[in-house]
Amino acid sequence: MPAQAPPRRPRRHRLWANPKPFFGYSDNTNLLAYLWSLGVVGFHGGSVMVELGRPGAMHPLTAESLRAALFTSGPYELRASDEYRDESRDWVDPVTFEAEPPMRPAGEWIWHRPDRVIEGVTWGGNLEILGWLLMADRAVAEPAAYEGAVLVIETSEELPSSLEVYRTLRNMGERGLLGRAKASSFERPNPPAATIKYVEVQRVAVSRAVDEYNPGATVVFDIDLGHTDPQLVIPYGGRIRVDGPARRVTVWY
Question: Which residue among 111, 152, 154, 216 is least crowded, i.e. fewest CB within 10 A of its CB?
Answer without folding.
Answer: 216
